[in-house]
Request: fold
Amino acid sequence: MTQSSVALLAGSPWLNVMGAPYSAKGNNSADDAPAWQKALAALQAKPGELLAPLGNYALKSSGLTMYGGSTIRGVGQTATILNGQSLPINASTLTLDPGSQYASVERLSIIAPSGLGTQASALMLPYAESPQGANVANIVRDVTLQGGYQNMVVWGTDCLFENVYAGSGAVFAAILSHGANWWIRCKINAPNAAVPVPYGFLQGTAGYPGTCENRFLLCDFSGNYTHSVAVDDPTNQADMLFVGCIMSSDILISGAAIVTFLGCKFGTTITNNSSARIVIGSGCYALSPTTVAGNVEIASDVVNIKAAGG
Reply:
């Protein structure tokens, strides 16, 4: 009996994707998609933890689908690599099932398909028919995302993204969000982009009524972007709070309810084309003078930012 089988029968919460009966190779040559999906299917039946040891796991025949209640855990962002470069151009390397709740992806890198179709992404948290059935309370921690039209697409609610490094190789946006989530110490960076990538973080149309609140703590939106952050929710429900964040490129607000900045550093301009309430709170400063149009409130200690006409 294999170690993985014994672990399941004994109620132990983990499997090893390199162990039998899965036997992934992690050599960046063999197609490891069947081995990975077989292990993830076992965890769908009996939720637990899937250990991914050191390896570059080439996914060639299909992307992966993960289910709620389980964890994928690598051994480090440079050591465990889910490599979807050979997948079809509109595939996602790893997709959380639309009904996933309390799933966790930790300590690995995920590479998107290299074909750059407009749906291509490294990680996908897809849309579900209702917020009750959507991706809820999932965790992505210590993960690097690379490539794709966007590195990640997020429809989830109440998910936690912590120490996520995104932006490398994305064509349209590092992160495309339609949800309401928590973002802690994430770095959105396009360090080697030959031309500006349109968006670092783009908040689009609300996925569900009243569920477009996003909270960012100590996040760094750097690199060669046209807009470090853009809020473009035509339903005007987006409620965005940034605390202690750095934005190197323009901030664009074209559809929101309220956008608040506290203790943030701005590299260039803040463009407001909406009726949203904009709050530039205490401790914020811009590297060069900028004005903000519209319904804006600016704290007295803010440096180099003033209201248009003020």
